Amino acid sequence: MMHGQTRGARSDRAGPSTRTVRKTKRTPTSTASDAAPSKSSPHKVYTGVLKGLYEGRFVPGQRLVESDLSRLYGVSRNSVREALNRLAAERIVSLNLHRGAHLRHLTRSEARDNLELIELMIGLAARLAASNLKRKKAAKRFSEVLDKLLSFEERPDSLEFLGARNQFYRTLVEIGGNGELPRILPGMEVHLLRVQFRSFYPVPQKAGISDYRRIGEAVLAGDPKRAEMAGQAHVRRIAKEVADLPDEAFGLPGDEATDVESGA
Length: 264
Fold this sequence. Notes:
There is one protein chain. By secondary structure, this protein is mainly α. It has 2 domains: 67 residues, Arc Repressor Mutant, subunit A (Orthogonal Bundle); 141 residues, GntR ligand-binding domain-like (Four Helix Bundle (Hemerythrin (Met), subunit A)), CATH 1.20.120. 66% of the residues lie in helices and 4% in strands. Helix 2 packs across helix 4 and helix 3 packs across helix 4. The longest helix has 30 residues. It is globular, with a radius of gyration of 26 Å.
């Protein structure tokens, strides 16, 4: 009995320190090294490609090679594939078994069809925002977003302007409160529409700033009908300009798409 008691006593003394050591060893491996990269790395590639489009480092029709993107952004090939799948779901990238991934290049009919739908959706977003502005007590927030956008009237070709414009549309949709618009709009290839044709005419022109002012003023006035008409008129003007572009604006830049590192 004494021998059994001695073993039990030793076990009791050793138990707490052994359990503590095991906890210390387990904790880092389950949180720090595995979870964070799987969440952040694909997003890094996704946002990097979109930013590269606006900065001109990537162009519609360009081939995106997994190994090049992996090296460029310092992430795994799996993370690159996940980002490319997300870009493909938003119709920014096309995935082909034999050709790989490349940035889509809109045809004339694709641009026309997208703009016809965008006209309706931007009109809807503006109308809903004008209807909900007071109820959501969002007038101050929207006014600040609009003022920031209008401050770029003399330099509408800057990257900062692009961010302010995106924020303007995001805020418009958020205030409107339609939960489907944020899901549907990315599928309208808005990013491609904004970058594919900029070498053929100045995008955005000062007329665009005037359009945003009219939309914003109607929303702040709480006038749903006027806001909807202003939103639709803005997109119709863009559609008219795109329709008048030459055929070269809708063709691939060459017989073969360029690679990531050689395209810009």
